[in-house]
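Quick one, T. Sequence first:
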Amino acid sequence: MPPIQDFLSTIALLYVEDDPDIRLQMVRFLSRRVPRLIIAENGRDGLNKFMVNHPDIIVTDIMMPEMDGLQMAKAIREKDRDIPIVVMTAHNDDDYFIRSIDLGIDRYVLKPTNPRFLIEAVEKCAQLLLSKRQQEEANHYVRFLLDAQPNLLMVVTGGEVEYVNQAFLNFLGISSLDDFKKMVVDNEDLVFSTHGSIINEGGHWLEALLAAPEKYSVVYLKTNKSVKLVPFALKTNSLPEQNRHLFSFIDITNIENEKRQLETQAYTDGLTGMCNRARLQGVLEAELHRARRHNLPVSIILCDIDHFKLVNDTHGHQIGDDVLKKFAKLLRENVRIEDVVARWGGEEFMIVSPLNDACATGLLAEKLRRLIADESFAKVGHVTCSFGVTQARREDTIRTLTERADKALYQAKTGGRNRVEIAG
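Structure tokens:
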């Protein structure tokens, strides 16, 4: 038996016809192909039997007493938008067809009805129904597999969230996909970068992930239960031809804690607590890349404590270390949160200032120069500092950028110290 005929034997069909002779003829014909046949004598009867029996397909006449076929179809559509409806009519009035189109009628069969045309219409509706159910079964199986995974999974199709698994819902403390979609629409803070800033690139966190998933190998998520950010490794699998993406968030809390401890040791200056030169190399590389990609400014400040050798020679290295620690603290406390302060080497420090041009960064350097000059350092008194400032050019590498700042610093030194020089 062909698959569609086999499928017809499993469905329930509601047949609505007020003419007893036509009803008898069609019931005999349909019952041989659709054993589960529900029969109604008018639209009101058809609506009641739909509510009780929940059929899979509806075949109905239009002109009937009490409630016509289109009125019945409208009432049914309010309950079930997807059920296939076939109408039989002897009318060719445009108003009936417009109303039918508005109701989403699936098939039309003209009266007097040729049984062959009617069963063809039913079979076509059944074929669509079969395909839909097969797809639903496949989707159900896929969702079963996704829900069985401990990782947080999110499926995005055409830029819209299609599915999130149960582990993701549990993590966020929500109960449904609709709740998650609302979070997406409202652009609630959900995904954060490794620096704790919201991933949105000036727009939406989902758009940022879709645009450049390779940028976010590690991200942080937060739950509704806690403000604490939880680290996840982000893995993305894509089907470009379907514009579909599977995002897998793998909890790496333990790994991240160990990594942070190692990074603290490897990338933090032991004396001042600032990031060291090795860490600064990565920061500079990232900021230069971002500046080129988005055509944004980024500037750096290279500063050096004036006559620091004299401090060590006069007061000893322990006092010199105290000066360096207080100096670093002053820098850190008087720059923006997004600025990065690092010990460049010896008594030299560098400040990376994203989204600032040379003019704004020069003003920042001047503010720092005055603060340091006015500060009193224990057992040393007042010290001064010289500053070299420059803004990154599109063609810059870390080496060319820092060399230009170093030249500006040299000019500040040779120009009398305790001053700011800006390299063009």
